[in-house]
Amino acid sequence: MENKTELETYQRLRRQHPDYFDAVEALGKAVRNAGPLEQQAIQLVQLGAAAAIRSEGAVHSHVRRALEAGASAEQIHHALLSLTSTIGFPTVVAALSWADDVIGKAKLDG
């Protein structure tokens, strides 16, 4: 299950630094709108980057966003598995575990 503390930390920081978070969110929107990729593809690319830097919170976030953009659990798993030769087996297994935190919660909520 996604760590409640991550969300609480994000919300606290958002309240403390609203201008900073507005700028980060504006940059994210500009990047997403800068080219022809659809939202699902963008989220899977960003999921791969999050896995590569071993960021559990970012993996949670991009899995959630990929699901919202229409990606299936199988597509998310395949995207992560495809990273094995690039980022290594242990990192992929960790990312799959983090992804399943969110996928499992989505199945329970859905």
TrEMBL record:
Pfam families assigned: CMD
Which residue ranges run through the membrane?
none
Say if the entry is tagged with keyword Oxidoreductase. Answer: yes
Q: Which residues form the Carboxymuconolactone decarboxylase-like domain?
A: 18-101
User: Which InterPro entries does the protein's record reference?
Assistant: AhpD-like, CMD-like
| Gene Ontology molecular function: any one | peroxiredoxin activity
Alphabetically list the UniProt keywords: Oxidoreductase, Peroxidase
Q: Which domain of life is it from?
A: Bacteria
Q: What's the protein name? A: Uncharacterized conserved protein YurZ, alkylhydroperoxidase/carboxymuconolactone decarboxylase family
